[in-house]
Write a structure and sequence with these properties.
alpha+beta, 6 domains, nine-stranded mixed sheet, six-stranded mixed sheet, about 35% helix
Length: about 700
Amino acid sequence: MLLNHEILEDLYKDAGEGRKKRAINYQKQGRVKIKNIEYENEINFSLSATVIGNEIYKTYISVKDGIVEDVTCTCEDYYNHYGVCKHTLATVLEFVNNPQYSSEIVENSKEDEEKNENRKDLLLNIKTGNEKFNSFKQMVNSFYQEEVEGISDEEDEIKQKGTIKIEPIIYYEKFSGDIKVEFKIGNKKMYKIKNLAEFYTRMLNKDVYKYGQKLEFIHTREVFEEKSKPLLDFILKYAEIIKFANSNSNSNFRYYGKALNETNILLSNTGIDDLFEVLKGKEVEFNKDYTNQKIEFTEEEPKLDFILKKTTSGNFVIYPEKEIYEITILKGKAYKYILVDKKIYRCSKNFEKTSLKLLELFRKNYVTEIEFGEKELTEFFSVVAPKVKNAIKMEGISEEEIKEYKPQELIIKTYFDFDKNDYLIVDVKFCYGEKEFNPLNEKEKIEVPRNIIEETKALNIFRKTGFMFDVKNLRFILPDNDKIYEFLTEDINFYMQKFEVMITENFKRKQIRNTKMTGIGVKVENDLLSIDLSKIDIDPSELEDIMEKYSLKKKYYRLKDGSFINLEDNKEIEFLDKLSSGMGVNYKEIENGELRLPVNRTLYLNQLLKALKGTEIIKNQEYREIVNGLNKEQLEEEIKVPENLNNVLRYYQKTGYRWLKTLDKYKFGGILADDMGLRKNNTNVISNSRLCRKRRKKSKLSSIT
């Protein structure tokens, strides 16, 4: 039997009959998975396990010299009585009744014995001799031992702070393309991390663990040297995935193996990117084809050249300068990498689309060189060479010999106009030296080496802008007003940078323009306000349509002549909109060029006029007098409160009195509302532009209180 019979009886006794029955059922149902065994003999051992109940519970049992020193579980029952629960008892029963564990017991090393011997005298012994399990002793010892070990742990951590380093070992499997990483840990002597999932748990719990004769430490982040901490974070990220993938996998993996290997990290595409970010600028151990070497992770651009050579038959060949199978290509999620000459290079996106793309073409087709004839040389220099021009070396070929095959500089001429439908049209010419042609006319060809890449890029610019192919006239056409407006406001500047742009007089006339209001006349006559709007440069017949577009928050309005009015941040249009909405004016009245409004609109109009910058405002004398007369300071100077009221009226009542008198003076009219505090039953009420006195009994205007 793996443990003393009396120990088992003590556990039964402490658990009670009910827990014993449930523990037996748990063990028979296979709910117990023992994670770790440290075994010396039947009276000295410890077990840790997970037990599946309503949740997954962690258990631990420690027996020393026939006495159960420690029993813990993460279940609620344990915390309620600090004794043996059904989960801890089921753990012991699994250990006793499952024969597979008899071959898995491990003897404690001499070093562990010495360590336990040194700490023995620190434990608080509640019972001695052959006394058996006691719940109170287990409870007290568990807390006391934690404090004692904590003191020792703190001392060890201080000594080892910042001294532990981590070194990776990368293994590359050529045929499968798999990359896996193992890790060594230590300071003076390095030890392999045999189980990454357990390492993650040690870091999580800040455990003390001994890797070998010269390495034992508390697993905290502080004990690791600074340059190893990024690698530590990498390990913990992927070790956590390994741990939970294995712990949550089907229990059958116990017999058939783990879901994930716990000795190394098998790198995914994202894992390759993550590892490079951690190791860039460093040299690490790399195992390829069962050979170890030091390689450097670098962000430099790899040097990958191609040779262009003329054959004896008069044809041409291109091939990589390096043997293609000496170059290893690794694929991350965000980047691709090249392993060559003891360096791993991270390829830029431009390099990936050019030199690396050409290299992969050789590898995919299993060829070491590509041959082509003299007739194809022009196409090579037009399509391929511009992409990898800095990576091509010519052998046995002079510049003079290939000059006629290289395309000349491409110049693109564009001719913009509007057709009879006010659609934007453009004729295009591709020019090589003195020769030019219409690229949309397949029948029109020239016998010169052409830069097909640049030609294609240019035609794509027209398509992205929204131009369509006018098959009949062999030109581009843009019929959509929104696209035309966008072209005139933004795209045309880009076109002028890329191409030679020519425009017609018709095109010039149909540009985007801002509205102008050179002057406004305002006067008061016959008790009416007269506004002269004749100097705005908008066709009156289009005004209503323009304002409708503005109210819908459109960016522009296209006039009948084909030009555009910008409606965004347009002060003149904004003025007309507020004039209409604020004064109840329809646009038909504005079209006549003159508005006649009640004089009481003077203040509102004056506020609108202030927003017009660059417009001359002509005001007659009477209008200016009204505006100035409504000034608060002038009110106080010009309108005096009667002496007999001056001392009895409050300040705001005096202001109200002056305001009413002013309204009466300019025939504006007004109404006194409730809650104004002006005692309207005792004051003048304005009606029909007149002050109508409403007297209460024995009350006069001169005696307002």
